[in-house]
Amino acid sequence: MSAPVLFRVSDGLAHLTLNRPDRLNAIDAAMAGAWADATREIARRDDIGAVLIDAAGPAFCAGGDVHAMASSPRAAEVTALAQILNEGIVALVTSAVPVVAAAHGTTAGGGLGLLLCSDYAVVGADSVIGSRYAQVGLTPDLSVTAQLSRAVGERRALQLLLSDRMLTASEALEWGLVAEVVDGDGHEQIADAVRERAQAVAWSWLDGATAAYGHAKRLVRASPERSLAEQLADEARSIGTAVETADARARIARFARRAQANGGEQTDRRG
Description:
- Pfam families: ECH_1.
- Belongs to the enoyl-CoA hydratase/isomerase family.
- GO terms for molecular function: enoyl-CoA hydratase activity.
- There is one protein chain.
- The protein is α/β, with parallel strands linked by helices.
- The protein has helices spanning 29-44, 66-71, 75-94, 110-116, 144-152, 154-161, 169-175, 187-207, 210-222, 228-242, 246-261; strands at 5-10, 13-18, 50-55, 99-103, 106-107, 120-124, 128-130, 166-168, 180-182.
- The protein has 2 domains: 5-207, Alpha-Beta Complex (2-enoyl-CoA Hydratase, Chain A, domain 1), CATH 3.90.226; 226-261.
- 51% of the residues lie in helices and 14% in strands.
- The strands form 2 sheets. Strands 1-2-3-4-6-9 form a 6-stranded mixed sheet, with helices on both faces. It has a 3-stranded mixed sheet with strand order 5-7-8.
- β2 (13-18), α1 (29-44) and β3 form a beta-alpha-beta unit.
- The longest helix has 21 residues, at 187-207.
């Protein structure tokens, strides 16, 4: 029996794959436990500079496993399951490690919450994304009510949560829910292209100013919970710490040399 979540780390990239393809990666107790284990490891390790979340099979995540709920619909069990998943969500969102999601096919219900864990989402041109909680009489969980309105605005969040609407990939891009839409010839080719593009995004973080990207993500994610003064104080501390790192010193020196060669211009036109 294969693991419900595949997890590996290579050259600073943590790769987390939802792996219940026959159930459209619907979340059951085993997947929740494996998700929690993987995200705890990401949080405790200092050799991880980026995280990639993707999924096996034809969909990213169809939400909670309704068949499992139907056989044992006890409040305490469902609440405990959500709390286990929430630990991983909090760990990823509050970390100083940027997260990219490769979300091909369908993303619905709790899958939307897992998608919102990412800081940068890539989807396929054939993808659809929605809430669908009310379709089975349930309320949103896994951070959806906390994060969806931050991503798309309160009115649009309510439009999605108070209907059975599924956004197309182009609509999700227009709403700001995802960062990129990737096309291809057929569903499998699109899924492969989505994974490849998400991996390229992750490697761009690892090949660049990895720590700076991570702390920029952390600062933005923390901002809604703080006063302006608290946020600015953290910004000041963070840039003060960053300027003394070997990476920043090397990049600043390189930038200064280029600026001097260009007649003292501050702007680096090459990016």
